[in-house]
Amino acid sequence: MGAAPRLVLRSIHTKRNTTLLRTSQQLCTLATRSGPSRNPTPSNNHRRPFTALQTTPFTTSACHRNGNSKDTPPSKWWPPTQESLAQRPVLVVGAGNIGRRVALVWASNQRPVTIYDISPDALRSATEYITDNLGAYCAERGTHPGHVSTTTDLRTATSTSGHPERDANGAITPEEHTRSPWMAVECLPESLPLKTSVLGLLERSLPADCILASNSSSLTTAEMAAEGPLRYPHRLLNTHYFIPPRNRMVEIMSSGETQGAIFSFLPGQMRRVGFAPVVVPRGIQSSGFVFNRVWAACKRETLAVLAEGVAKPADIDALFRDFFHSEKGPCERMDEIGLDTIARVEQHNLERDPGLGSEYALSWLRQNYVDKGKLGEKTRDGLFTGEERDNLRERHYLENYIAVEETAGA
């Protein structure tokens, strides 16, 4: 057996002389980081407003909607060459619980990845996670890890030089093009103003062939394109990841204007790194995509049962595991996702359709868990305490071990 693949990580340190990124209407503020902090009270560093170094090429779409910018790309998307994919990174915006996992999978098979976040603490935590897990994931798949870099400077994230070279017409030069991301995936909290503000900035900062993807679990990119409004929805789409690398399914859905060529290209790239894409037909807009529409009903009723005192988390999950023979029940899954994220999604569902949620259950979740900093795995305590979760993991391991032994002895 050959030597273990070598993981290369690089952190780009930048000066913090940042200015506020504003849309034409509001300042977007990041919610509590979704990294695995053990401190139940978010630090001030995690409540800083979204920031970016402001120079002419790096302005929001709101600033240019009515202008005649020379570097406006045509409303047509063409795929990057296979040769360029070996050099051009995937940009992951947000180093939280999901962002770091998405980055890990894209960094397999010798793919370069850049992770951007305003929080050095979140980037350090993401780097530790990737260092601990990427080699094992690549060894399992028989691949080699790519180069992973992290940065707090969005200029550096959108091009390796940090200062994209442009020609006389304002277009990014071919040399600069080979160093810019071919896809940007936002993995930010479930806030429509925040996501549209960041996507608006990215579409002005990145080449015309860069795919813009949102990992939102409840917001459609059609909503984001309308809210911005974003100028180039033909290269915008939803790519809803679950909890990679263990869950490798990805739901792909159009913004309503996403070019068909992206649907021919992107699923193949996902399969090369181990993802399993499910594509919603292009003419359909489905709030919650596929799985989340089913999961929402289970989650909603689980929270209602807990809020009404009908059963405890352990009882609900035990029934779920016994009936469906699943590894985990809905309460353990919600702890894994993060109860703050669950609360934001439930709030969005209520605003969209009051029949899709319960104000009482949402209030119960916030008062008893979110407001107390009990967010699930990332703060250790959630619907299950840290000790209860450790016991569950030990039981999962023993059950799997016994099942394997019984199969081997059959």
What would you note in describing this structure?
Mean pLDDT is 79; it is low at 4-8 and 10-73. The chain has a nine-stranded mixed sheet with strand order 1-6-5-4-7-8-9-10-11, with helices on both faces. A two-stranded antiparallel ribbon has the order 2-3. The protein contains 14 helices and eleven strands. It is an alpha/beta fold and 410 residues long. The chain folds into two domains: 8-279, NAD(P)-binding Rossmann-like Domain (Rossmann fold); 292-409, N-(1-d-carboxylethyl)-l-norvaline Dehydrogenase, domain 2. α2 (97-106) packs across α3, α6 (192-205) packs across α7 and α12 runs antiparallel to α13. β9 and β10 (249-254) form a beta hairpin. The chain is globular, with a radius of gyration of 21 Å.
What gyration radius follows from the Cα positions, in whole Å? 21 Å
By CATH, the architecture of the largest domain is named 3-Layer(aba) Sandwich
Helix content estimate: 40-55%
CATH topology title of the largest domain: Rossmann fold
Order of helices and strands: EEEHEHEHEHHEHEHEEHEHHHHHH
Strand content: 5-15%
Report the mean per-residue pLDDT as an integer. Answer: 79
Q: What's the number of domains?
A: 2
The CATH homologous superfamily of the largest domain is called NAD(P)-binding Rossmann-like Domain
Structural class: alpha/beta
Work out the number of β strands: 11
Q: Give me the side-by-side strand order of the main sheet.
A: 1-6-5-4-7-8-9-10-11
Output the CATH class name of the largest domain: Alpha Beta
Number of helices: 14
- Broad shape: globular
Low-confidence segments, given as residue ranges, are 4-8, 10-73
Biggest sheet descriptor: 9 strands, mixed
Note the gap between the termini: 30 Å
